[in-house]
Amino acid sequence: MAIQWYPGHMAKATRQMKEQLKNVDIIVVLGDARAVRRSIIGSFLEVIGNKRYCMVFNKSDLADEKAIEEWKVRFKEENIDAFFIDCMSKKGIKELLTHLSSLKERFRFDREVRVMIAGIPNVGKSMLINSIAGRASAQTGNRPGVTKGNRWVKVNKEFYLMDTPGVLTPKFDQEADGFVLASLGSVKDTVFDKEELALKVIEFMSEKYPALLKERYKLSELTTPIETYEQIGINRGFRSKGGIVDYDRTANIILDEFKNGKIGRISFDRVGDMDNEAE
Question: What is the model's pTM?
């Protein structure tokens, strides 16, 4: 399924981020731990240029643990500063702060370290700022498009953090990229067909994590995606008048539970898969 979402405010936000680069010391590029490659979009790195940055992957509690360990090894091999965190539980926040604090000593700043937090929509940028600040300094919400403009937040004498709007690339390199980011909640849900996306989620889960799918929806077996879709609706009691499966309600519950990790811990991007694509 072809999905594209790049409204005017994203182009504006990208320009504003580029203009603010001169005012920041380091950029935290925030991605989703379930989609390590696809959530760190190329346009971020193009905007950043030679600016110092580190990669941080939120929602690690929702990602496949084996995949996370594989990526940690890969990043270490490539000498890339990368951290896997969970803003809800604050797991990994201390390690990230230690890294950012080291910049103050390494570069002998006689002032606070100025950090830009950049990333795709609905990945947890504002939540990360609140986790670091220890208070509700930035508006949060489990939907894309909550943050509307750049905003500085003073944490303490060590840090100033800049909250930025979530942005995507003007055009996804591959059709699958749009599917992945939409299923993670980073694309506005009015620009794609929910039922089609739910079928793609079922197809992905049936291939990569069949046991989790069967357990969550009490399925004795997996057949075709559409048959599985219908069985999920039946098992949940989602029926319209005349006993017909309520496809819209079924799609909503599948997408909501997938996005929020209720089906189980999954990862779209594996190190081995990325190596095969490169070949």
Answer: 0.89
